[in-house]
Amino acid sequence: MKDETAIKKIVVIGPESTGKSTLCKQLAAHFNTLWCSEYAREYLLIHGKEYSYGDLLIIAKRQLQLEDEHVEKLRSMKYDVRNIVDKSQEPRTRNQRIREQKSKNNKQEIENRKLETANCKLLFIDTDMYVMKVWCEYVFGMCHQFILDQIAERKYDLYLLCNIDLPWVPDELREYPEEAPRRELYQIYKNILINQQTFWGEVSGNQNERLRKAINAVEQYTL
Questions:
Q1: Taking the model in full, what pTM does it have?
Q2: Superfamily for the 8-79+121-221 domain
Q3: What is the DSSP string of the chain?
């Protein structure tokens, strides 16, 4: 039987500058839930972009810690939201009763809160160990065993692969503005997803199109 109370984890992956963080934020807002950001940006902004092979192991471990922290936070949110009381049945002053009677949205607000409870099982994750594996191998030609072990152990419910059809936007941490490495990295990610067992979907187009495709995939494969 399908476990309706489980946390469903959706990972957004792809090359740099493909809208992963933006998509995670939009999905979390749409489904009234949380998203886990990419720790690498925080680490590199503090320590500088001249990273070593060892730095990637530090980043990977902290990324997983953040993911686990978000799972626990989401569990507590599920508890809080699940215990929301329908206050429409509590004693009211005369003015409050009049306002409630006139409000056509009161019942809908309660239903929206129930919907929030159901959707709190979703966690959107910007980056997982597949990303760390690709990063390690693409730059250093090898990968930490810890990362490989975590790929084997950790399970997710859906992958969303961001296409490279968005314009590359420069920032201080991005490394690959040329089309050739972007295409190469995209194909590496696609090959990984083709050869693993979790459902996955591709998101492409402008931001609105990407969000629509992502929502459809989430609703089809996780709800």
A1: 0.79
A2: P-loop containing nucleotide triphosphate hydrolases (3.40.50.300)
A3: ---TTSPEEEEEE-SSSSSHHHHHHHHHHHTT-EEE--HHHHHHHHH-S---HHHHHHHHHHHHHHHHHHHHHHHHHHHHHHT---GGGS---HHHHHHHHH-SSHHHHHHHHHHHHHHTTEEEEE--HHHHHHHHHHHHS---HHHHHHHHH---SEEEEEPS-SPP---TT----SHHHHHHHHHHHHHHHHTSSS-EEEE-SSHHHHHHHHHHHHHHHT-
